[in-house]
Specification:
The protein is built from seven helices and five strands. By secondary structure, it is α/β, with parallel strands linked by helices. It has a five-stranded parallel sheet, with helices on both faces. Strand 3, helix 4 and strand 4 form a beta-alpha-beta unit. The chain is globular, with a radius of gyration of 16 Å.
Length: 155
């Protein structure tokens, strides 16, 4: 039984978030290194494992390999391929992957396109950290050690 093990596991998983299973990590795609760094740090501080990508092709290769990525956070304007095209690819490859779009582009057409294609949230940079984290938390139900200590199995 993993019951007595669960509270240790929670802190261990946080300490070693870099080796979380690929499917547990949030994938973040943005070609701006400063944005990648700040969002990765923000999510890591909340205990999320993050796999940052600066190249659309590397991100798509990752999704091809691990079909069950739970959440992808995508920038819209990047060299070579825009985030809305990538969002369409993601839904073809891995329909269950949830998508949050981040962009510096306040164009309502971009927002409507992303949301009608299934994005769960759309944020214009710079965005409010708390609103962003609320969207991330709603996309990824947390596996809290407290529910397991109460004898509720991990889902």
């Amino acid at each position: 039984s993993a019951q007595g093990f669960s509270s240790k596991r929670a802190s261990w998983a946080f300490m070693t978030s870099t080796i979380e299973p690929a499917t547990e990590a949030i994938c973040l795609l943005d070609d701006d290194p400063a944005v990648l760094k700040s969002i990765t740090r923000l999510l890591a501080c909340e205990g999320f494992a993050v796999r940052p990508f600066s190249e659309p092709k590397n991100f798509l290769a990752h999704i091809q390999e691990y079909h069950s990525v739970r959440l992808a956070i995508l920038d819209v304007w990047m060299e070579g391929m825009n985030g809305l095209e990538i969002q369409a690819e993601v839904s073809n490859i891995s329909a269950q992957t949830r998508v949050i779009i981040i962009t510096a582009d306040a164009n309502p057409v971009t927002k409507n396109t992303a949301l009608s294609a299934g994005a769960i949230a759309f944020f214009i940079k710079p965005f409010d950290d708390e609103e962003f984290l609320t969207a991330v938390r709603s996309a990824i139900p947390r596996r809290t050690p407290t529910s397991n200590e109460a004898g509720v199995p991990f889902s």
